[in-house]
């Protein structure tokens, strides 16, 4: 594959993953830095991709540690691995947070199924639930929307790595603030 084909293929995989719960790239690791300077990684669900602008949309609870970490430092890394054909995608860039009062969050909330909305109706992520079953600590659906936020990740670089039997391959791509490809090159794996 050429560099242009690698870039197009990586973004096509991400775009398809946003609509396919069975895709390996549907579930990605989002890495941020906490207030103590320690890296923090967690799995997130890819909800939407804008290939032209190099944007990934992820939904989150605004009470979560990641929301606070990204509020303080919007520079994040997203990592995914697809077992076939053994490709790792490592994207670096910045995150824009869209809170519950934003138009983007309201629109995304309106598209969520009830089962997904229910994940925002409990207590803050990481808090003890005590002896109560989670179902008893639920708040009203409208209150759940007050905790729903959209994280928009803008890729600045993509590090593509493919494991192969004889010759691993790696390429690095850079994008401008509008999503246009500004450079691409093969690098040593």
UniProtKB/TrEMBL annotation:
For this protein, the record's Pfam families field holds:
Pyridox_oxase_2
Query: Source species, please?
Result: Rhizobium leguminosarum
What name does UniProt use for this protein?
Pyridoxamine 5'-phosphate oxidase
Report domain Pyridoxamine 5'-phosphate oxidase Alr4036 family FMN-binding positions. Answer: 11-97
Q: Which domain of life is it from?
A: Bacteria
Q: Which SUPFAM superfamilies match?
A: FMN-binding split barrel
Biological process (GO) annotations held by this record are: pyridoxine biosynthetic process
InterPro entries xrefs: Pyridox_Oxase (IPR000659), Pyridox_Oxase_Alr4036_FMN-bd (IPR024624), Split_barrel_FMN-bd (IPR012349)
Q: State the UniProt keywords alphabetically.
A: Flavoprotein, FMN, Oxidoreductase
* Required cofactor(s): FMN
Q: Which GO terms describe its molecular function?
A: FMN binding; pyridoxamine phosphate oxidase activity
